Amino acid sequence: MAAAAEDTVEEEVGRVVEQGKELQETAASLIAKSAHDEQSVRQKVLSLESSIRRCRSLLDRNNHLAPKLADKLEEDLQKARCIIADGDASAFLPSKPQGRFLKMFLGPINVRASRKDVQLKVKEEYNSYRDKTALLFLFFPSVLLCLRSWVWNGCMPSFPVQLYQAWLLFLYTGLALRENILRANGSDIRTWWINHHYCAMIMAVVSLTWEIKGQPNCAQKQRGVQLFLQWAMMQGVAMLLQNRYQRQRLYTRIALGKAKRMDVVWGETAGVDGQLWLLCPILFILQGFEAYVGLQLLRTAYKGVTSEWQVIFCGFLLVFMAVGNFMNTVEILMVKSRFKAKMKTEAMKVSSLGLHFIISFAIYVFIAPIRIVEPGHEVRT
Hints:
Blueprint: H1 2-61, H2 67-86, H3 99-106, H4 116-150, H5 158-184, H6 191-208, H7 218-221, H8 223-255, H9 273-302, H10 309-367
Helix pairs in contact: 1-2, 4-5, 4-8, 5-6, 6-10, 8-9, 9-10
């Protein structure tokens, strides 16, 4: 009986081993077939992209086309490009170089997602991270400033401020990592905003080494820190408004075929004008206040109140980031105004064509049936 049981177990194990071998062969065959099909699709995508570039070059060189036809062909090419770049075929396009920042943190791994739903999941997580960031930008500085007034008698200890700077370092590192991953997956993020987060990371690291001294003259020495916390609260408000505004504009651009679903919008299309009139002054005030904080730090170091090198470095860095933000905002508004002017010109052309059609139709309906009677002839009814 024991021998029969052993034979049964041996047969069962042998059957399991054979099933494992068959499954391995099936999986290897499927992977090989998928790789061959993927290479075929990749070649077709690259060929179509090359054809689109060739057609665009021909369109740019041919100046004898009618304006209407040229605009229509340009729009068709843009739609074809959007279909490739925003559809499932985008996974077969050559990926952008990931850069040294990602390689430094993640190593030489490929962060490009092969499926569109995974790419969109990455972007949703990035938007969620920005929303949480905006709320924390309001919460942390307000708590520190309230404790400064109510508990610490106008003189903040070093540890809470350094803890806040450590959180800023974690925050900006997370933003920079997510934005680099989004760029690797086809998102259109301006280089300046990623570089801005690099600068903010450097400033957070330097601030961690800056010992905020207390008495005597604590209020004067910590004036720059107080202004920086107030600026951070303003930045939280601006981030909340900017996140909402950008998403509404993104939906418009995607519907017009001017953007991909992976893009992070920075301008060039019409959005919600009421929000834009509210957002732009806040951004300019925020940038001016950022430069003011940097100048105050430099002024404090110049007068000898706090002469540490960290104060001078953070002052110069804040001024540099404020100037860069201002220049990019102005550039965005200029691109946006040019786009609106172009859309207005096209709308005027369409309206003039419509008016011409209405006048022609009225002439045809009301004037053409009237018969001109020559002298000496009667009109018989």
